[in-house]
Write a structure and sequence with these properties.
The chain has 113 residues and is of the alpha+beta class. The protein folds into two domains: 72 residues, no CATH class; 31 residues, no CATH class. Helices cover 54% and strands 12% of the residues. It contains five helices and four strands, in the order αααααββββ. A four-stranded antiparallel β-sheet has the order 1-2-3-4, with no helix packed on it. β3 and β4 form a beta hairpin. It is extended and about 60 Å long.
Length: 113
């Protein structure tokens, strides 16, 4: 009996994970991800020759969805990737630079650019 309960439990967990993944909220968040909007913009540019602004595209997609759907989902913002900091690199003069922090160092002495 416990084996059957274990299988049933795993199936229930899988069911609820899939239900959450395919919820209207999750799907709309995926559509409004920066990469998805970029792909749609590229396709529209290639197909029509017209450049689409990211915010305008997001507004047009929002207009396509019903008001009832937006009430259920709530407001969705464009999801952007997190920016990563670049690692310091040293050149032949033992000088290191970091483009994002705008610092350079020479022989362990840091100076602001």
């Amino acid at each position: 009996m416990s084996h059957n309960k274990s299988i049933l439990k795993d199936e229930l967990e899988e069911y609820f994970l899939r239900r959450k993944a395919f919820s209207p909220q999750s799907i709309v968040q995926a559509i409004f991800h920066e990469d998805t909007l970029k792909t749609i913009r590229k396709h529209l540019k290639k197909a029509t020759g017209v450049s689409a602004d990211e915010d305008e595209l997001a507004d047009r997609i929002k207009d396509m969805l019903s008001k009832e759907t937006w009430k259920e989902i709530g407001d969705v913002k464009i999801k952007r990737k997190r920016k990563t900091h670049k690692a310091k690199t040293r050149d032949r003069n033992n000088t290191c630079t970091t483009s994002r922090s705008h610092y350079t160092c020479n022989n362990n002495r840091r100076t602001r650019r």
